[in-house]
Design a protein that fits this description.
Elements: E1 17-21, E2 47-50, E3 56-58, H1 65-69, H2 74-78, H3 80-94, E4 102-106, H4 112-119, E5 123-128, H5 131-139, E6 144-146, E7 158-164, H6 173-183, E8 184-195, H7 200-205, E9 218-219, H8 222-231, E10 234-240, E11 244-247, H9 248-256, E12 275-278, E13 283-290
The protein binds zinc ion.
Zinc ion (ZN) binds near residues 9, 14, 50, 52 and 55.
Amino acid sequence: MMSETKIICHVCGGSNFTLIKPTDATGKLTSENFAITNFDYGKTGELQRCNSCGFIQCTDLKEVVKFYEELEDLEYENTRLERKIQEVRLVQFFSKYKSRGKLLDIGAGSGIMVEAALEKGYDCIGIEPSKWLYRKAQELKLPVIQGLFPHVDARGPFDIITLVDVIEHVTEPAELLTDIHKELDHDGILVLVTPDVNSVAAKLLRYKWWHYRFAHIGYFNKKTLKFLLNKSGFSIIKMTRPSWYFALKYLGKRFFSFLPKFLQFPLPDFLGKIVIPVNLRDSILVICKKYD
Ligand SMILES: [Zn+2]
């Protein structure tokens, strides 16, 4: 079905789309729909696929910033332990490309990546729209500022900018990458992680895939991500798939959310203390540098 509305592809600028999924929004959305740990998989706004480049974007949710500013997410803080392990591993990974310097984490949440990078010796700050997550960072005395990038208090040049699970949330990804390009040192690196809509998990689970959610506006695959990065002045020096770390209890709860209610039972607490790496191979991790 062709859409009549005038929309522009955030990746290639094309204006020919195919409607692939109508919106699931029935009433007014709230910031709860945008929580990082929201369980409402498969619920999205209207999704359209660009006929030129294949990029999938949500076309009916435009003013999402306010949801992030008001976002509160207790479950996210409860999973801080495994998120910390994840960030420590990620810092370890990109330190092979840039072992020291000034780092900016965009979409810093409560500062978990910032904490991991500080421990590794980076000169580090984070920026985060959610006032609630910002306050959590404050409580832990982590250098996170509240607001949106670009920001007067987050001026470069930075040696490293990290953008982990952020680009899929924004309505103007090209603009964001261009702004990052400006704040990055000439031999700085961009570390970017985003879900892969062409992954096996995404294809098998179709609209049950955990990354189909209201909060996700843009659905990248390797090709569309590479295209947009190149267009924004970046070349990819490494592309891989990151592992995530989960407590067994959290995974169990997630797994149960796929089952009918009568098959669900309470999980024992000790499962919350066992953390395991899971590589679902459904995200893309890229290290980029600026074109020479
Ligand atoms: Zn396109």
